[in-house]
Amino acid sequence: MSTNVATYKGPALDQVRILVVGDVMLDRYWFGDVSRISPEAPVPIVRIEKREARLGGAANVARNAAALGAHAGLLGVVGADEAGAEVEQMLQDGGIRSYLKRDEAISTIIKLRVIGRQQQMVRIDFEEPPTDAVLRDKLVQFQALLPDYDVIVLSDYAKGSLVNVADMIAAARAAGKVVMVDPKGDDFTRYVGATVLTPNKSELRRIVGSWNSEEQLTAKAQQLRSDLKLDALLLTRSEEGMTLYTEHERFHMPAAAREVYDVSGAGDTVIATMAAMLGAGEGWQKAVETANRAGGIVVGKLGTATVTREELFG
Fold first, then answer.
1. pLDDT (tens digit per residue) in 161-194
2. Longest dimension (CA), the chain
3. Rounded CA gap, 195 and 96, in Å?
4. CA of 66: how far to CAs of 15, 96, 129, 143, 271, in Å?
């Protein structure tokens, strides 16, 4: 008995199959030294000493799911370019099944961050929406992939890859899948019927307006959950933690972060961890507790990072 306890590593996440669909990005980091101000303009000069590339957007959600030991697949669009090839290679290296569509008409979305003295100095974004033909192909492939996965995560960064999100949700729910959505934009009606939405405070405020008390927030969140026919709504609240609203309860978790170093990608970690826990058969409360712990760990790391099963359950 004691042997089992010693070797227990939490839920059987290695049995869970998660398909992530959404806006795929390449995050590039240029690290350098800042020692003087430019003579051309009042800006610092960063002399680049190191470069790194990481999976971003929906690809970072898949990377987080794979880091937890789940079987992760990624469906999205990249350009037929060097950055798209780099994304493909990193997916392969991370053990993620790639279903990427290569769109000849666009460039891969890149977010380039220049960092000097451990501070982000500037972020440069390169992005174009995918073409209609590629998006139609993607929807057909999505429907074909549904039988192979338990949990569907729709990672919306409002970059154009999820224009068919309402059809995807309907198809996935009809197939009996858990459908999790990280939402964006001014119109959440396209997410009707999903299992759970995971907005942050500013995203929720754009939809329901501001609130003056916890009671008012609860009323607005529950009304939105009901209107959108969701099983649950998870509000991520940064330093205030996160709150889960279901039909019969409100469950709040205070922030688990020991030290906040970088919040970029934390939402990706939270939704990937919840997906893995729900896919393993855990209930809402256990899934939120674990996702909250994962978010607390990842904000203590620089850039879009991941959490391992050992860090969570070791």
1. 999 999 999 999 999 999 999 999 999 999 999 9
2. 70
3. 24
4. 11, 7, 27, 22, 13
Asked if the model's pLDDT at residue 306 lies above 70, the reply is yes
DSSP state of 66: H
Annotated domain spans of the chain: 17-25+55-109+128-307
Is there a contact between 265 and 303 (Cβ–Cβ < 8 Å)? Answer: yes
Predicted local distance difference test score (pLDDT) of residue 6: 45
**Residue 148 is encoded by which pair of tokens?**
């192979």
The amino acid present at 304, given as its one-letter code, is: T
Going by their DSSP bridges, the two strands 24-37 and 71-75 should be labelled as unpaired
pLDDT in tens, 28-77: 999 999 999 999 999 999 999 999 999 999 999 999 999 999 999 999 99
Taking the C-alpha atoms of residue 64 and residue 54, their distance in angstroms, rounded to an integer, is 12
User: Which two three-digit tokens encode residue 147?
Assistant: 């039988």
Catalytic sites, residue numbers: 268
For 244, other C-beta atoms within 10 Å of its C-beta total 24
Length of the chain, please?
Answer: 314
Residue 249 has pLDDT above 70, yes or no: yes
Superfamily of 17-25+55-109+128-307 according to CATH: Ribokinase (3.40.1190.20)
